[in-house]
């Protein structure tokens, strides 16, 4: 059973988990560049962990 993402999804749950587990020494802009997404997306993903 595969993961179904909507057509504008930029990352899977695996990528989100990797960004959330990234060490604090890596900046949000570096993570965004690495995964090819906006810095705002990285901030959203990290914020969602704390909810």
The dominant shape is globular
The number of helical segments is 3
Report the portion of residues in β strands: under 5%
Please tell me the overall pLDDT: 77
Number of strands: 0
> In angstroms, what is the radius of gyration?
11 Å
| Spatial gap, N to C terminus | 27 Å
Indicate the low-confidence ranges by residue numbers: none
Would you give an account of this structure?
The model has no long low-confidence stretch (mean pLDDT 77). The chain starts with 12 loop residues before the first helix and ends with a helix. It is built from 3 helices and no strands. With 51 residues, the protein is mainly alpha-helical. It has one domain (13-49). The protein is 53% helix and 0% strand.
Short key terms for the protein model shown above:
globular, mainly alpha, 51 residues, 53% helix
